[in-house]
Amino acid sequence: MKPIEEQLEKLEKEVKRLLAKEEICNLMAHYEVMHNQKNMSLHPMDFAMETPDVSVQIADSDPCCGPDAVRNLFCGTYNDMDEEAYRGVMLVHYLTTPFIEVAGDGKTARGVWWSPGIETVKRSPGANPESVWCFGAYANDFILENGKWKIWHMRWVSHVKCPYTEGWADQRTFYVRKTGHSDHPSKLYNPYSPDFVQEALPMGPLPYETWDGDEWYLRTEQQKGKCGSL
């Protein structure tokens, strides 16, 4: 291959990677815009619903694995709530610090977003709405499905969730509770506590050539290395 042809091939590959990152950013933006009390049932369109191991895991809750489980989470769990249950509820989350790596082979990608949020929630359908801080991060895998980037594995790592009036240093009752019956125990339970040093989760994705596993966000070598090293 001639040098000019090699350069053109390299440029074409880089352009595809940049376009992939832009499409993934728009995909996550669409998910977040739809993440409210009115549009939960629209979420499956953003997921790789033709991929058998598509999944969603929120904090320390049981993971929803497979297309049926993901569909039931958004179209069953939330749709079963009547209008009265949603009255006074508000979900507003933002996406910041996009950190995306597209695989060298262009078939998968990984991304981390810090996501501060404010919510108005009810602890039960008849309860009064409460103002809540909800801060966390996404650590997601993406896959090309029928030529479109889709969310493959969604993970929400909770940093704090607490009443607006009390603050995260003193209040713990909004933490998601472990159910204790999952075959896939959560590795995402990492809430703030004054009693220990919170883990630096999720870690940002590193460059990779092809899919090699889904626990990249749990790595700890940066924490163990010398000051300033990776």
What tags apply to this protein structure?
Nuclear Transport Factor 2, Chain: A, 4 helices, single chain, 8 strands, globular, 8-stranded mixed sheet, 230 residues, alpha+beta, 27% strand, 22% helix
What does this protein look like?
The protein is of the alpha+beta class and 230 residues long. The chain has one domain (3-224): Nuclear Transport Factor 2, Chain: A (Roll). The protein contains 4 helices and 8 strands. Strands 1, 2, 3, 4, 5, 6, 7 and 8 form an 8-stranded mixed sheet that branches. Strand 7 and strand 8 (148-163) form a beta hairpin. The longest helix is centred in the first third of the chain and has 32 residues, at 3-34. It is globular and about 70 Å long. The two termini are 35 Å apart. The relative contact order is 0.15.
Layout of secondary structure:
Elements (H helix, E strand, L loop, with lengths): L2 H32 L20 E4 L5 E2 L1 H11 L5 H4 L3 E4 L2 E7 L5 E8 L1 E5 L8 E16 L2 E16 L57 H4 L6
Query: Which strand-content bin applies to the residues?
Result: 25-35%
- Poorly predicted runs are 177-182
Q: Main β-sheet: number of strands, strand sense, barrel status?
A: 8 strands, mixed
Give the integer mean of the pLDDT values: 86
β-strand number: 8
* Shape designation: globular
> Would you tell me which CATH topology applies?
Nuclear Transport Factor 2, Chain: A
Proportion in helices: 10-25%
Assembly classification: single chain
Structural class: alpha+beta
**Gyration radius, to the nearest Å?**
19 Å
